[in-house]
Amino acid sequence: MDKKQFQRRVYVVSGVLGLLFFLFVGVLYQLQIIQGPYYRAQATKRNAQTETVEAVRGEILDCNGRVMVSNRSTYQVRLNTSVMGTEEERNAILTALLQICREQGVTWTDTLPVTGAPPFEYTLGTATGTNRRAFLKLMDILSENNSSWETASASGVALGEEWEAYRKAVDAASQTTETGTQAAETPAAPEDTVSAAPLIAKMKDYFGIDPTMPDEEARDLIGVLYELTLRSKGAATSEYIFAQDVDIRFITAVKEQGLKGVKIEPTTTRVYETSYAAHILGRVGPIFAEEWNEEDSYYKNNGYKMDDIVGKEGMEKAFESYLRGEEGTQIVELNSEGKVVSETWKTDPETGEPMAPKPGNNVVTTIDLRLQEALEQSLATRVPELSDKVEGAAGVVIDMKGGVKAIASYPTFDLSQATSLYNELLKDPLQPLYNRATMGLYSPGSTFKMITGVAALQEGLTTPNEEILDTGYFRYPEGEKYPYGDYHPKCGIYRQQGGTHGWEDMGHALEDSCNIFFYTLADRLGIDLLDEYAAMFGLGQSTGIEVPEYTGYVAGPETSERLNQEWYGGLLLSAAIGQGNTLCTPLQLANYIATLVNGGNHYPAHLLQTVKSSDYSQVVLENEPEPLDTINISEENLEAVKYGMYLLGTEGSVSKYFKDLPVEVGAKTGTAQVGSETTEANAVFVCFAPYDDPEIAIALVAEHGDSGGGLAAVAADVLSVYFGQSGTSQAVNGEGVLIR
Length: 740
Hints:
Elements: H1 3-34, H2 36-47, E1 48-53, E2 60-61, E3 67-79, H3 87-104, H4 129-143, H5 147-174, H6 197-206, H7 215-232, E4 241-244, H8 248-257, E5 262-272, H9 278-281, E6 284-286, H10 289-293, H11 298-301, E7 309-311, H12 314-318, H13 320-323, E8 328-334, E9 340-345, E10 362-365, H14 369-386, E11 393-399, E12 404-410, H15 422-427, H16 436-439, H17 449-458, E13 468-470, H18 492-497, E14 502-504, H19 506-512, H20 515-525, H21 527-536, H22 557-562, H23 571-576, H24 586-597, E15 601-602, E16 608-612, E17 619-622, E18 629-630, H25 635-650, H26 655-658, E19 666-672, E20 682-689, E21 696-702, H27 712-722
Parallel strand pairs: 2-10
Antiparallel strand pairs: 1-8, 2-3, 3-4, 3-5, 6-7, 8-9, 10-16, 11-12, 11-21, 13-14, 15-18, 16-17, 19-20, 20-21
Membrane topology: Single-pass membrane protein
Subcellular location: Cell membrane; Membrane
Protein name: Penicillin-binding protein
């Protein structure tokens, strides 16, 4: 080949290569420069997900700044099955995840109401109501036009419906009726030993589970797939959190295996910093389907999502609007394997600000945790000693403006274990979940007599110094027509010892709890005036407390008609000493005493003191209660009634309990008969201190506790803490000072 021919070939080859190069450059230019923005947008659109980031919930503190409920940072596991691939690949990923859980001792969420090992049986009796109803709803969805599902789930559905009916009957039976008694007998529970093997077999087939997989491993996998199906079929509204509070060892094991669709993310969990105040602190949980779907739903109307965590009871629910933060929105970019490539906050189109979550506000309550501890400890120690028939008790400590300093129901429970022990607590015959302080209705007994006394004094029907003769039983002077037929109620001392109190004025009649004295005043007053004054002191009315309460009743013709009972004149006499249909809560009793001894200013009972910003730098709200109304009580008349309580607290039957206190105490006992005369009476006790310048009032009730005097020791325990802690309180940090 000559030199010229070789050069021509080189030129041709070079030209072809050059042409190909320029063509390649042109294509790259077209793709990256001209069409680059389009393809980048398509790639971003395809791999970017918008996720909601929850806000940290605010803390709950006592009046001295002691944290009662806080948060702890932790990690949770969620599942994204959309990137897990085929059914077989999905099952393999979940099987590997479950194996890591077993090795690391991590508990995962599985609410399928079937035992975890063969022989498989239903556990619908121990399932929560929400989980039981979700199971029934899913079975109904899957069984629609599918006879094999209907057959497989038939026994479970029937059992679930039995348990639903049983739980409703139990709830109805446990409710306090309008007369303060249990509504009905508790029914017998259904049998819960029903085989779930047909359902498990059907689920194995439905979820494509390898038939050779061991039964227990298959059951675990079915449980996770059941949870995912609940959400995908609309049988559950809450988001599925596979596992919560996982540690670094678990996180490392998951990362090492590179399990697609398994996402580990930071979160917070509620921490109860005290084992006290369980009945009023409450708890948080997911929004129930019934709450979401109810007419005029609070959650729908206020921008919540169906799977949000909210306050369910107590102060967590009452102060939801303050404690709840503002959630953020994050853009998460994933690669083809479902791994996170980048995370950025979405920008608010109106403000241009990043949509990061904003923590909730902190709520400072009126509760004094040291008084709360003292009250609960004293009730637990002293109430069982009152009587071998005692069942439950409650106590309330309140200040002169309605601020609740302590509120307790006995027996109580540990809020941190309430969810795991819920079924045991529910079955306990002493009903530890029941808040007797705000929901328990009790006759006030002789603690009502101060109302009768004030009413008669203010209406000019007696004087502080008038003396009335106790003859042992109530009767008119000879020659006057007695209006109550053969009904001649006796004084307690006459009934028990055959004696009398002789001539009594207001103060000594209260000290001695002389029934005849107050029967006489009631006879002069009449039921209308008596009821009017009882209402002024808040009996039969809402106290205004932020947590659920019963309002109770005041005996009278209207109440009898409401209860389908007959009213007759003699009931006036029992009403005057706090018996009959007069029923009130311990909270109402405490607030009535505070209203009395503060001079007649009737404040709403409340738990909210202050709302502070998430960093404690600003006061968002300062609760400054105003009186609901004011009762006109002259100073002379008020002192006459208070003096009777002074005599009992300093010289009478309960004075021994208060003699070592640095202040003088005014007190009144009550014994409220319930049921037959052979049934142990309820014990009722109220007091206030200091006598000269009252700061707090206390009300205590013990079911079948016999005499109210026995409860004076509980009051003394609380008062010793209150008046012994002066100058030692830990103050809430001032504004502009960070405490974190």
